[in-house]
Specification:
Bound molecules: calcium ion
Shape: globular
Helix content: 10-25%
Length: about 700
């Protein structure tokens, strides 16, 4: 593998903004393939993972291996913002509830797409710099006439499902710290439960449960210990603290539970997927060693009290951003001839875990991704056996999976008929470098600081960079047999642009990807059966529902998130603008998307570089420390945030006012005056000019390059 440099994250992209225009709803036409109501009852999708096990497998089969060829668009709806979309829509009683960027909620008629109501929580845009990965949202929860949404600025809000009116609104985080929320709340009994994010910026993770009726907090479970001097909140924190060393609390410690959580009514347990350390670098975080519980763990707690029951740590002494926040699926499997109640997860670290969910006992752990940090998991101890180079962080040694993971947040699905778990996987090498400058190993900044020097991942300044990437980063959909611990089939490896997965009793699965398409595969063998152009990249998982004898497939399309913010290197080459849009399909659907308007923008001619090469080099270093996670490695943005190489002269004129003065805070570009000197801000500008000139000359020498 030609991975000499690296690329932190993923997927495909899009550039620029577009005016939002709402599609007119398609007229209802007589559905040609309608089954009778008796054979196809109205079927909602009322919770995040569909059923309590979050299997994302629907019993609907009107759209199936035979009929899927006749699937067509029923309607589409353009959201009002053009940042990332990661939402699982819910469909309850004829209304589709879907979230866009900035935690906005759209309630749409599920048959024709007409807007019923819209809720904007008016998130302070300055919070953009408090998050790692764009102002995304993965969806709402529904309970008894209430729609519950968690907002990017850390609130949990209950809305009237009929009207969108606010019933209650509580702050679940300290607004002065870099906490954000992107996850979907989960319902357990009379409570709504939510975690948070921010482990890249220095926080301590926790999960909180609130009474659905009143919004009052019932319990809070911290995932990592705080300062011992303050006393521990629980026996679990007392136990966890024994696995930490140094002064981790000054960094926050991390362990943010920003995505997966599942309530198990059978066993009355609530499972939490816990994230990475804050900072990533374990040598900085906990210098004298230690496993650092409950980082990168699955933790089971009592839903009534939040009391700890069991845990399994996937990656002891996590240091690569190997979160265990990825999708958790509950199922009943027959293992070694015995029925077992299991929990399944394919976390970032590349191993597929099957646990007994009553006890946390490890039943199997097999490699599903491309992995070079460990050879296997010792079934006696339950611990991974690390390779000799696993923790060599010299800026040259390649780590696989990367911090993007072998699988990130796009949900899997499990089809009990095929017995397969369908996993969207990634291969994206990364190189880590021990901190060189003091500020990479200093806690409390509240800006992205992972305890590694990120200059290791500066892409080489070669014109064919995008082509080089083709052979280095990839993604594919893998159909995984969880009982035998091996893949049954896999899609052709391609760009790492696969979104979440839906599986149905029609013997098919749906996944967005393949350069802006929604694709249906045969669940048994992976044959591609159908696809449609959605005119943008897709990260979110599709859902399905039925109304009046008609089955629908719905997807919230759109690019952004961590994939765009950091993955600009990969995203950059795909020259399609992002559209944040809900698309709904049915058999015989005839609705057409508007034609794509070609991007005719022209890059302004940059002014010449006026600084020495040493200054440009200094700018390169400071840029990759402070700016890269939003504006992209090597200035190749994923399109959600501006490509600085395209900055007009007017922007260069007020450069210091933007970077240090914070005049664009209302758009999310906060002041960096605490982290960047005037001299360094100018050095960044000179680096931007150097790269802008290189791109400009190339574009003019070779149209379409970049
Ligand atoms: Ca992380």
């Amino acid at each position: 593998m030609r991975a000499i440099f690296v690329v932190l994250i993923i997927l495909l992209a899009a550039c620029g903004r577009q005016e939002s225009t709402q599609e007119g709803a398609a007229p209802q036409e007589a559905p040609p393939f309608t089954a009778s109501k008796t054979t196809l009852p109205d079927t909602d999708w009322s919770s995040h993972g569909l059923d309590w096990g979050e299997q994302r497998h629907s019993g609907l089969a009107q759209i199936n291996v035979e009929t899927v060829k006749d699937l067509g668009l029923a309607w589409s709806f353009d959201m009002y913002t053009q940042r990332g979309v990661e939402a699982t829509p819910l469909m309850v009683n004829g209304t589709l509830y879907v979230t866009g960027s900035w935690s906005m909620v759209y309630a749409l008629d599920a048959i024709n797409g007409e807007l019923k109501w819209f809720y904007d929580p008016e998130v302070d845009r300055a919070f953009l710099a408090k998050g790692c990965c764009d102002a995304v949202n993965r969806g709402v929860a529904y309970s008894d006439g209430k729609v519950l949404v968690a907002t990017y600025d850390g609130r949990l809000v209950a809305l009237n499902a009929e009207t969108g009116k606010v019933i209650w609104d509580v702050q679940t985080t300290d607004r002065n710290k870099p906490y954000t929320i992107t996850g979907a709340p989960r319902i357990a009994k009379n409570m709504v439960i939510i975690g948070n994010g921010g482990a890249e910026l220095g926080v301590r993770g926790y999960v909180s449960a609130y009474d659905i009726e009143t919004g009052e907090m019932v319990w809070r479970f911290y995932t990592v210990p705080g300062n011992p001097a303050d006393g521990f909140e629980s026996k679990a924190m007392d136990m966890a603290a024994k696995t930490w060393t140094g002064e981790w609390w000054k960094w926050g410690g991390g362990g943010t539970a920003w995505d997966s959580m599942v309530y198990d009514p059978e066993l009355d347990l609530f499972y939490i997927g816990v994230g990475n350390g804050s900072p990533w670098n374990a040598r900085v975080r906990s210098p004298e060693g230690g496993d650092n519980l409950f980082l990168a763990s699955i933790v089971a707690v009592r839903p009534d009290t939040g009391e700890y029951v069991w845990h399994y740590q996937t990656t002891p002494r996590e240091t690569w951003d190997y979160t265990a926040t990825q999708h958790i699926i509950l199922a009943d499997l027959e293992i070694d001839g015995k029925p077992r109640k299991v929990l399944m997860q394919a976390p970032k670290n590349g191993f597929f875990y099957v646990l007994d969910r009553a006890t946390g006992e490890l039943l199997s752990a097999e490699i599903y991704g491309v992995v070079n940090w460990a050879t296997h998991v010792d079934m006696e101890t339950g611990r991974p056996v690390e390779t000799a180079n696993a923790r060599v962080f010299d800026g040259k040694n390649i780590s696989l999976p990367s911090n993007a993971g072998a699988h990130n947040w796009p949900p899997m699905s499990y089809n009990p008929d095929t017995g397969l778990v369908y996993i969207p996987t990634l291969v994206m090498p990364v190189a880590f470098l021990q901190p060189i400058e003091d500020q990479d190993s200093k806690p409390g900044g509240g800006r992205w600081n992972v305890g590694f020097d990120r200059i290791a991942n500066v892409p080489p300044p070669v014109p064919n960079f995008d082509e080089i990437l083709e052979g280095v980063v990839s993604g594919q959909l893998i159909a995984w047999d969880p009982v035998n611990g091996e893949p049954r089939w896999a899609s052709e490896p391609g760009r790492p642009d696969g979104g979440g997965v839906l599986s149905t009793a029609g013997g098919i699965i749906f996944q967005g990807g393949k350069g802006g398409r929604l694709v249906s595969y045969n669940a048994a063998d992976g044959d591609e059966l159908w696809s449609a152009d959605v005119q943008t990249a897709v990260m979110a998982p599709p859902i399905t529902y039925a109304i009046n004898g008609q089955q629908y497939i719905a997807i919230a399309a759109g690019f952004g998130g961590g994939f765009a913010a950091e993955g600009g290197t990969v995203a950059h080459a795909w020259k399609v603008r992002n559209r944040s849009r809900v698309l709904v399909y049915k058999l015989g659907g005839k609705h057409q998307l508007p034609a794509v308007v070609p991007d005719t923008r022209v890059m302004p001619e940059p002014e010449p570089v006026t600084a020495s090469s040493e200054v440009v080099q200094r700018g390169t270093v400071v840029y990759h420390r402070q700016c890269e996670y939003c504006h992209g490695a090597g200035l190749r943005t994923g399109g959600v945030n501006p490509d600085l190489r395209w900055s007009p002269a007017a922007t260069h004129d007020i450069w210091q006012d933007i970077v240090l003065g914070g005049i664009l805070e209302a758009r999310g570009m906060v002041s960096f005056s605490e982290y960047v000197s005037e001299e360094d801000a100018e050095a960044i500008r000179q680096y931007v000019l150097a790269e802008a000139n290189r791109l400009y000359q190339r574009e003019h020498a070779e149209p379409g390059g970049g």
